[in-house]
Design a protein that fits this description.
- With 333 residues, the protein is an alpha/beta fold.
- The relative contact order is 0.15.
- A six-stranded parallel β-sheet has the order 7-6-8-9-10-11, sandwiched between helices.
- It is built from twelve helices and eleven strands.
- The radius of gyration is 21 Å and the shape is globular.
- It has two domains: 121 residues, NAD(P)-binding Rossmann-like Domain (Rossmann fold); 192 residues, 3-Layer(aba) Sandwich (Rossmann fold), CATH 3.40.50.
- Bound molecules: 2-OXO-4-methylpentanoic acid (COI).
- 2-OXO-4-methylpentanoic acid binds next to loops.
- Belongs to the D-isomer specific 2-hydroxyacid dehydrogenase family.
- InterPro entries: D-isomer_2_OHA_DH_cat_dom, D-isomer_DH_CS, D-isomer_DH_CS1, D-isomer_DH_NAD-bd, D-LDH-like, NAD(P)-bd_dom_sf.
C-alpha cells in the first residue's frame, strides 16, 4: 500500500515519521507542494492521498485522481468547504477529514483572544512599547458580567461553552441541530436574530456552507447590541468584512478577534518581510486597529492538534484503502 501526502510542512514532518514507524507496511511519499494540476501526477501509482491546503481541490485534479484509480482522499483538517463535491461523487472518491484533532485548541484560543480584547492588552502593549505605563482611559470589561452567544454548538462550540462558563459568563446558543445535553439546560434561542439581540459577545463556530456566507452582514450587525464583541475563529466567509468595518467605525462593534479572514488564502502563513508589504489594504486596516486582533488562522495550531491531524488523517486513509470506509468518512452532498 502506498499513500502520498501533499502540502507537508516541516513542522508536520516528525509526526509523519512517527506514523511511518508505527505502520511499516505502508509506503509513504511526502510531498511539500500542494495538490493541484502541476503536482497531481505524483499520485500515480499510489492507493490513497492525504492532503491539507486551503486552495481548492478542483474538478480537474479530482478527475485525474479518479483516472489513476485513487478512491481515497483524506484531509488533515476539519473543513471540507474547498472540495468540489460533484467531482468527488463523479469519481467515486471517498473523503475523510479530522473532525476532532483538538476542539479545545480552537476554543482555548478563542477565549484567550476575547480576554485580550476585554482587558485591552493590545492597547497596553502598544502604550508600554512607547514607555507609557499609565492606566487611563482603558478600563476593561469583565466576562463574568456578560452573556456570550455561541453560534453553532459542534465540538468547538461546546468546548468554548465550557470555558466561558468557567469564567462565570451566561451562555446562550443558536444551532439548527440541538445538542441533547445543552437542550436540557435550556441554552438554545430560537433564531440567529434572538442570539444577536441578547449577546454581549458573539462567538462564531459555524462551518462555511453556502447558507452561512456573509451571515454577519449589515442587517445582522444592526440587530446586535451596541458595543458587541465579535469572535471568528471559524471561516472568513462567515463575515462580510466591509460590514464589519462599518460596524467597528460606528462603535456598534466594540472589538473583534479574527483568526480567519475572507481573503486569507495566499496571505496567511506567509512572511512578507514588513507590514507595508502585506498585499491587502483592508486586512492592514483591521490589523492596525487597537480593538481588533487579527491572527493568521492559528487557533488550531498546537502540538496536540498538528500531531493528531497527521496521524488521524493517515490512519483514516489507510482504513479507506483497506476497508473501504473509515470512522472519519465525510458525507459529501
Ligand atoms: C480546519 O481544520 O478546517 C482549520 O480551519 C484549521 C486549518 C487551518 C488547518
Amino acid at each position: 500500500m502506498k499513500i502520498i501526502a501533499y502540502g507537508v510542512r516541516d513542522d508536520e514532518m516528525p509526526y509523519f515519521k512517527e506514523w511511518e514507524q508505527e505502520n511499516p507496511q505502508v509506503e509513504v511519499q511526502l510531498e511539500k507542494r500542494l495538490l493541484d494540476d502541476s503536482t497531481v501526477l505524483e499520485a500515480k501509482g499510489c492507493d490513497g492521498v492525504v492532503a491539507y491546503q486551503q486552495k481548492p481541490y478542483t474538478e480537474s485534479v479530482l478527475n485525474k485522481l479518479g483516472q489513476f484509480g485513487i478512491k481515497s482522499l483524506s484531509l488533515r483538517n476539519v473543513g471540507v468547504d474547498n472540495v468540489d463535491n460533484a467531482a468527488v461523487k463523479a469519481n467515486n472518491i471517498k473523503v475523510t477529514n479530522v473532525p476532532a484533532y483538538s476542539p479545545q485548541a480552537i476554543a482555548e484560543f478563542t477565549v484567550t483572544e476575547l480576554m485580550r480584547l476585554l482587558r485591552r492588552t493590545k492597547k497596553f502593549d502598544q502604550k508600554q512599547a512607547n514607555g507609557d505605563l499609565t492606566w487611563a482611559p482603558d478600563q476593561a470589561d469583565e466576562l463574568n458580567k456578560m452573556t456570550v452567544g455561541v453560534f453553532a454548538t459542534g465540538r468547538i462550540g461546546r468546548a468554548a461553552i465550557n470555558i466561558y462558563r468557567g469564567f462565570g459568563a451566561k451562555v446562550i446558543a443558536y444551532d439548527i441541530y440541538h445538542n441533547p445535553e445543552l437542550e436540557k439546560e435550556g441554552i438554545y434561542v430560537d433564531t440567529p436574530d434572538e442570539l444577536y439581540a441578547k449577546s454581549d459577545v458573539l462567538s462564531i463556530h459555524a462551518p462555511a456552507v453556502k447558507e452561512n456566507e456573509h451571515m454577519l452582514n449589515d442587517d445582522a450587525f444592526s440587530k446586535m447590541k451596541d458595543g458587541v464583541w465579535i469572535l471568528n475563529p471559524a471561516r472568513g466567509t462567515l463575515i462580510d468584512t466591509d460590514a464589519l468595518i462599518k460596524a467597528l467605525d460606528s462603535g456598534k462593534v466594540a472589538g473583534a478577534a479574527l483568526d480567519v479572514y475572507e481573503d486569507e488564502v495566499g496571505v496567511f502563513n506567509k512572511d512578507f518581510g514588513s507590514f507595508d508589504k502585506i498585499p491587502d489594504e483592508r486586512l492592514k486596516d483591521l490589523m492596525q486597529r487597537e480593538n481588533v486582533l487579527v491572527t493568521p488562522h492559528i487557533a488550531f495550531y498546537t502540538k496536540t492538534a498538528v500531531q493528531n491531524m497527521v496521524k488521524f488523517s493517515m490512519s483514516a486513509n489507510k482504513d479507506l484503502i483497506e476497508k473501504g470506509t473509515s470512522d472519519k468518512l465525510v458525507e459529501i452532498k
